[in-house]
Structure formats: C-alpha cells, structure tokens
Write a structure and sequence with these properties.
homodimer; 414 residues; alpha/beta; Aspartate Aminotransferase, domain 1; Aspartate Aminotransferase, domain 2; 7-stranded mixed beta sheet; 4-stranded antiparallel beta sheet; 14 helices; 13% strand; PyrdxlP-dep_Trfase_small (chains A, B)
Chain lengths: 414, 414
C-alpha cells in the first residue's frame, strides 16, 4: 500500500542505490529536492579541497600546475564529465560559467555556417541562454529567431537555407520536459544547421549519448546534477569533426597551441584544448572533480531509473486524497506540469500552484528544499543518487500540510 | 655592510611588515619569489574555505545564497579589491577569468565610442590581452593597431579621431616596467579614447587610484599580488560615469536588473551589477575574499615601500662581485632589465640571462621559486608582504651558485 510511510521505507531497504546516500552530507532534518539548482555536498569534497589548498597550493606553489595536474584539469575533468554524457575522450573541457560557455559555443556554432544569416534560440530555455544568444546575434549581425522547442521544426522549414546555429535546451528548466536530442539534432542537420544543446538540466540526470546523437556543441552546468558546488565551472563539448575549424571568440591563452611561447598571434590548440579560455578556477574545478565519484560509481542509467520511479511515486502521491475525507491533489490547486512519459521528462517534477513562491518558502521552513519559478511553478528535483522514497513520502506529507495553510489565489486565508 | 647575511637579518628585525609573513603558509626551505604568477597560501584561507564548503554549502544549501551572502559576493569582494586599487564602492565586480573579463571590458569600451573604427592594443601586454583584443576587433569590425606602450602617444596622434578603446598593460609582465596610468589615461582622453587597463601585475603591488586617474575600465587578476589561489576569479572595474551606458557582451543572468523574474529580455542592472555574468564560482571567489586580509591590514602603500627596498637591494646584490676575486653580475651574463626608478617599475625585477629557463629550473631545484619568460628573462617577484631581506640575500647567493653551473649561451658546460 504505497500511501503508507512503511511502503516507502521498504522500497528504500530494497534500493540498490541507497548506499550512495551516505556519500552526501545531507543536513539532518532536511529533504533536499533542489539538486536541479544546487546539488548537495558530496562527502569527498571537503578533504579533497583541503588537500588541494594546503598541500598542492600551499606546499607545491607553481609546481602544482604540472606535479598535481592542475594544467590538465580542464580536459581531465572534461573527460570525466564527457563519459557521463556519452562523449568520447578529448571532446569536453571545463571552465568559466555556463553563461560564458554558452557565448563561446553559440558564437563558434554560428561561425561554422558563415553563410547562414539566422540564429535560432529556444524561447523556453533558461534566461541566460536567451540573453547570450541575443548578444551573439548582435555581434555577428545575425537575425535572431526565438521559438519554443515544440515549434522548432516549423522554424527550420520556414527559414530553410538560412538557419545556421540553433541553441536548444535539453530539459525545460520550468516544466521538466525532456526533448529528444537525437531526433531534434537530426532535424537540425537535415536543415543544414548546427545544434548547440544546453545540457544543464540533463547532464548527470538523464542518460545521454551526445556523440551518437550527432550533437555539434553542448554546454552544461557543474553544480546541478553533477553536485560540483556553488558556481562550479561549466563544461563545453564539441564533436570531434568540428575541432579543426572551431573558431571560438574567447581566445584565452590556455587555448593556444603553445601557450608558454607567449607568441604574438593566437594559434588555436588542436583538439578540444582550443576551447580552454583563461586560467582555470582550480579550487572550484577540483571540487567538481571530487564530486563526480558517487555518480560515476552508481552510473547515470541506474540513477535515472530510480529517479523516474521517484517521480512516478511523487505524482501518484500528489494526486491521492490526503485522507479518507480529503480531496485529490487537483482539488488542492495543484497540477502536475511535467509530462508523465519517461522519455519526455527530466529529473525534476514541476507542480503548478497559484501561490508557488509561498508554498516553496513554507516548505523550506519545514525542511523541504524546493524552489519556485515565476509565476506559479514549484519544482521538486528527484535525484535518485541521494533522494529516497521516504523523502518523497515525507515531502508530499509536508506539502499537504502547507497547502492546508497557504490558500489558493483568490481565497482569503481563514 | 649589506653584502652580509647579518645585514639582511637586521633589516628583517626592524621591518614593521615582518609580522605579516606568518599570515602566509610559506613552505619550509622555499623562497617564494613568484607571487607575480601565483601568490602563496594565506593561512586564513583553508579554514575559511572549509567553513564555506561544510557549513554553508553542506548545511545551508541554497539558503546560503542569501544567508551567507553568496549572491552579493561578486560585488562585496569587488568593493574590497576596489579599495586596494583606489576605486569607490560599487565600481568593481569579481568573476570569471581575466581573459573573459578582458573580452567583456574591451568590447564594452569600444561600444562607448561607436563612431571610432580603431582599437589599440598594447603589443607588450600579456598574450591573452592581445588575443582577446584581436577577437573583439574582429567581432566589432574594428581595425586593430598594436603598439608598444612607449609609442602609444604617436599612435594616438596618427589615428586622431579614429581611436576608440585602448587596452594597456599597467606593468609589463616581462620587464616589470610600470607605466604612468594617470598621464597615459589623460593622453587617451585628450584623443577622445577610452582607457582600459590590465592591472594584473599592479593590483595589490603598486598604490593605484583608478578613480582619480580617470581610468574608464580596468581588469585584473586575483591570484598574483592578491594571493587568491590558483585561477582565482578576476575583477572588472568601471568608472561610475559609464555605468548607465556600459553595454557588455557577456549578458549573463546575474547581470540582469531583476534576475529572478526570468524575463524574456535582458535588462541590465544599474551600477556595476550589470557587469556580473553567470553564477559566480563561489568556492574560488570566497577563497580570494579570505586571502585579502593581510594585504588590507598592511596596506598597499607600506607593502610597496618595502617591495621597492627589496628590489633595490636585489639589484645591488646582483651587481656585486660574488667574492673578492669574483666578477660583477654583468660579467656572469646577467643584466637587470627592470627600470631602476621607483615610479617606473612594478614589484618584480627581471634579469636577462641567455639561459634563463635553465637558471629558473635550477633555482627551483634549490628551493628558490622564480620563473622565466621567453626567450631570456628571469623574473623575481618581491612582494614585501611576505618576502624578507634574508630571502633576497639567500636567493641571490643561490643564483650565484646556479650561474657557476649553468654556462652562458655559446659556452660549453665544462
């Protein structure tokens, strides 16, 4: 009987991933359903960072660039993230913020189609993607067409022969809807375009195979499902076929073919090294590296399977009457926004409620960490790596309590 | 008699800044003369970072963005760096790498003079500055003129009415030569241009007053004289008079006027907040913040006075005969490249030697950390905050030992 806490506890006892929960420093009394915004602290990180700071920086000083592998870290960590997204070695590099990497990737993508005057940008994407696409279009003198992902096919037809780069979000940050990367990329290629994917809400959450899907360029965030810590550096992926012609605007000296020649002219390095920018933020970068271990050990596929189960469980609980006399979820002003089909959703479930910001704040006060997005969306991230069935049960129970207190819009608190 | 170690020890005993040496975790048996590349570990950093990681991230999760001041950190740390460079509050922001900030600053500077077709770039600047200036010129369709700082006046005359932005290095990373920021900026303004300064080798090393000097925009490095750790985030300064019109290309969501509205259009924040980019690298950023304390306590002016004394001392020792029968420095193939005048040099002293890379490697083996720059320059950074007279004495003694073993170019090792 899954509407009891005992049922949830039993699932957790039988859960092969439950061993990974202890790899995260989850605060007592807190249910972390916000890993799509900031992943929790992996236990390995503090000691790893202390070693980097006290031993490598403190004792080795500049020798650490070679002896401790700092110089190679952007591509070494890139390769580790690459394995999590289906990228072969030497196709992923880590550094800077997601916004900066988006700028770099979209500019380079548009330059791969210099004769195409239109840049397409997913209008449902996270705002920073849209702002940077706008900036690139302006700098390159391109016409910017914004379209929701669902209408991309129509845009590709309408601007056939004109569309160069297309910036797409893999998972809708609001609704949690997952797009078909492989099919969409094929459609983009059929139209002669270059597909740039923002994988921020997909990397580490959903099994990806960017190589097989033919993705041209991709960018993603280090601090959501990768749990790399606040503001962890972002990653940039480029298909190997583009490496020789990738013409990136952020020509920092670490991307030079021979950086220590200190040469007059920028000569891009071969391979993905050309997408290095300036000196990497070593402390943030190596915290991210240490954070990857539990996810690598569990495997994205297994985490995904459990996350989907948790999502199904949550949506069923939300729809249940709260007690024998209670009304089902929809009567509490809640609506599940995220598609129920497994192949059409990421790892967060979005609920619509007219007072989502208040609900999220009230949940936070009661130790359930979620967030809201304007105007009326409540997001609950179910990362199977550390979220349990019991967490979901308790979170929904708390949500019911909160909804008894937070009136629906239009109602007056009684 | 300053050619004795006793003399150096006496100077250290009388040195009011000697108390700050213990604020840095200097490895035993190592003389750190490389703070212009990577400042040593300030003792306050490991515990501060551990608090950020275990307590703030680990326990507060996303609440730390407000409760622990993460959201404000880019401008809060910016203001602290601002005080070190003579910038009033609200004019400096921290984030990303120096290369990225250069791109952002130079693009915005050129856009402040949309009718000017020429971008000028200091040809003696660090390579990344030159590469990014090249990239900006290409994106904006500007003609790039590269000139050594000493010939800038001539370039401003030749391209009168055409020059928009000028990217200058405050301290020559090779020779250690310091340029007159105030006078050069006045010359640039007289020509109708916008002065962008790279302060990487000046911030924290040389007393600066960017506000009084009329600097338009400036960028600098967090891990040299600010000792913020490997790849510490860079800073960007903008004069307040430009804030309303500053049109930056890296329009990340943190620079939005109302970032949590998640609005369709980028509306830049007022003030320096518009120069925020993506989510800041909190771990690297807060390590930098903790690192600033000793420098703030000592004051840049006092550190500079001592650094100049150390530089004078080093150049005198280098010129001395090594012993009663020895030859002076110049006969060992050494030449002091850095100007001797205090108002014309930064805080590193550059020596020319035909085999500088070998000399630097041999010094490193003996615990004296320096570096070399192609083709023949050896750099010794004298940061008065933690370098002592005894360090200088011992380093020069070691240099003499090394030079007995490393033959000059053209000679065959005996």
């Amino acid at each position: 009987m899954e509407s009891t806490r005992e049922w949830a506890e039993k699932q957790d006892l039988e859960d092969p991933l439950s061993v990974f929960r202890k790899e995260f420093a989850l605060p007592t009394g807190v249910i972390q359903l916000n890993g799509n915004s900031l992943g929790p602290l992996p236990r390995a990180v503090p000691d790893a960072l202390d070693e980097v700071v006290r031993h490598q920086w403190g004792e080795h000083l500049i020798r650490a660039w070679s002896e401790d592998g700092w110089w190679d870290a952007p591509v070494r960590v890139g390769d580790r993230i690459g394995r999590l997204i289906g990228a072969g070695a030497g196709r992923t590099v880590v550094g800077e913020s997601t916004s900066v990497q988006l700028f770099n990737a979209v500019t380079a993508a548009a330059r791969l189609r210099p004769d195409r005057p239109v840049l397409v940008s997913d209008s449902t994407n996270f705002p920073t993607d849209r702002y940077l696409a706008t900036s690139v279009a302006r700098l390159l003198g391109l016409r910017l067409i914004e379209t929701p992902m669902g209408e991309l096919g129509e845009v590709l037809r309408r601007y056939r022969g004109e569309v160069g780069a297309i910036l797409c979000g893999a998972v809708d940050f609001r609704t949690g809807e997952l797009w078909d990367i492989s099919r969409t990329t094929a459609d983009i290629h059929a139209a002669g375009g270059i597909a740039v994917w923002d994988l921020s809400h997909a990397a580490g959450a959903v099994p990806l195979d960017v190589d097989a899907a033919g993705v041209d360029l991709a960018v993603g965030c280090g601090y959501k499902y990768l749990s790399g810590g606040p503001g962890a550096p972002a990653f940039l992926y480029s298909a190997a076929r583009h490496h020789d012609t990738l013409d990136l605007p952020l020509t920092g000296w670490h991307g030079h073919a021979r950086p220590f020649d200190m040469a007059d002219e920028f000569v891009p390095a071969s391979g993905i090294d050309r997408a290095r920018t300036g000196t990497p933020h070593v402390l943030s970068l190596l915290a991210l590296e240490a954070a990857l271990e539990p996810l690598e050990a569990a495997g994205v596929a297994a985490v995904r399977r459990k996350s989907l189960r948790l999502g199904d469980y949550l949506t069923r609980l939300v729809a249940e009457p709260s007690d024998a006399s209670g009304a089902p979820g929809s009567d509490r002003g809640l609506e599940v926004v995220t598609p129920s089909a497994h192949d059409r959703r990421g790892n967060h479930i979005t609920l619509r409620h007219a007072r989502a910001p208040e609900v999220s704040a009230a949940l936070m006060e009661r130790g359930v960490v979620t967030d809201s997005r304007p105007p009326d969306l409540l997001r609950l991230c179910l990362n199977g790596l550390y979220v349990s069935h019991t967490d979901v049960f308790d979170a929904v129970a708390t949500l019911r309590d909160v909804l008894r207190e937070v009136p629906r819009a239009g109602e007056v608190a009684g």
